[in-house]
Amino acid sequence: MSFARDEIIVPCTNVQLDTPSRINELRHAISSSHLMNSVHNLHELIDQLFSFVKNSRRTDVANIQDLLEGGKEIKIYEGCPWSNYKAVKTLDWSAYDEIVASSISIMQIYHLLTLETLEIQYSSNDLADDAWRKLSNMLKSAFGLAIEFRDQVSELHRPHFDYVYHLNQIMVQLLVVFKNIHVTHQEIEARFGDFDQVPEKLNTYARILIFVYNECAVLEQLRKSSQVGTLRSFVEILFSYYRSLSYYHKNELGIALGISTYGLAKSIDQSKIRSKLHIKARKTNVKDKHLWREEIRFVREFQNSAFPPAFRQNISIVVELLRILNSKYEKLNNSINFQKVPSPEEVKQEYLFNSADLPSGLQVPLVDINRFIPTCLVESTNVQGSYF
User: Fold this and answer.
1) Which runs of E-coded beta strand occur in the chain?
2) Rounded to whole angstroms, what are the CA distances from 170 to 165, 212, 221, 246?
3) Which Pfam families does the entry link to (predicted)?
């Protein structure tokens, strides 16, 4: 699903490529221990590689696509000079391969930096608009490179490239949802748990989550992993929160109650004792903001070390909101509406991602992405400014 530091592809140590010394120096300075420094070195490495290709070909080239194609003919190593990269070990490694591997590494690092930064921001409760922009811009930096030559990625690199590309697509969309959940949570806390005002644009956020859920299916096709299944479960819980609010807004309390209960059941450890503790007991105290933090225990898949702590922080907020909503829905339904509450099976099949009337997914477009332009092309065309 996401990348731990020791899973990021990095240049193998003690390897010298048949390239100018500056390229080898940059490779040796890249490691998973110093991510931000490595990102800067990777950007320069790619820029140097394009210059190397242009100088080696000794022909006029007008665009990145020509440089990439020319790079395929420049062999610089025998085998794969990157660790954690499951490529064919006996192949002739070209300048083109080096550029694509570097771009994959950059996308992985930006993904991990986004998660680590988000975790820090949650812990320090410092998530103003500037913080969300910083997180979004971090991911956009990865796409500035990838978009330029996504269509020219070879079959050798395609599974690795596509996996992290779609993973970052998911992360961009989730940041939009996370911000809405965070802002709503702050407003609810300021009103001491009062949830009378339904958040705006519920359908928009629900459709974004539908897009994310569909992207998870793409990830599963690219790589069989239990972590992707965990991500889908996580998205389903966020979707339960928005769907329950939508049905509450339509005054369908029974369905709203069933969905909120489903979301809680999927989030929290469901041993018989803990089930009663978290979903049934002490609902009169559900507005106590400390109660959920003291008692909550997630299901095993969300306790796994591979599940990003930033996601765990987010799901904690959603659980608190779902508990407040669940108590509200039950009270209203038992005293006023008396509507039938669907079973968990009915909720899953009729009101969540299997619903027959599910709207289409919505992808928030990537905007303000700086195009990557190699320095060698900037100089040759007198284009002012560059990505770096």
Assistant:
1) 10-11, 75-78, 82-83, 92-94
2) 9, 6, 15, 23
3) DUF5355
CA distance 91 to 162: 21
- Give the separation between CA 120 and CA 103, rounded to whole angstroms: 26
Instruction: State pLDDT tens for residues 218-264.
Output: 999 998 888 899 999 999 999 999 999 999 999 999 999 999 999 99
Cα angle, residue 58 at apex, residues 57 and 61 outer, rounded to 5°: 80
What average pLDDT does the chain have?
Answer: 87
Residue with token string 């390239």: 19
Residue 120 phi/psi, 5-degree rounding, is -65, -45
More confident residue, 1 or 303: 303
List, in order, residues 6 or more apart from 365 with CB less than 8 Å away.
none
Per-residue pLDDT tens for 3-38?
Answer: 678 889 999 998 999 999 999 999 999 998 999 999
pLDDT of 284: 36
In angstroms, rounded to a whole number, what is the distance separating the alpha carbons of residues 40 and 388?
9
C-beta pairs of 12-18 under 8 Å, 24+ apart in sequence: 12/81, 12/82, 12/83, 13/83, 15/77, 15/81, 17/76, 17/77, 17/81, 17/93, 17/98, 18/75, 18/76, 18/77
In this model, does residue 352 exceed pLDDT 50? yes
3 state SS of 92: strand
CA distance 236 to 233: 5
Q: For 30-45, how does the pLDDT look when each residue is reduced to its tens digit (9 = 90+)?
A: 998 999 999 999 999 9
Task: Give the helix ranges, DSSP H, for 72-201.
Answer: 95-124, 129-149, 158-190
Question: What global pTM score does this model have?
Answer: 0.88
The domain limits of the chain are 1-156+366-388, 177-355
Q: pLDDT value at position 294?
A: 43
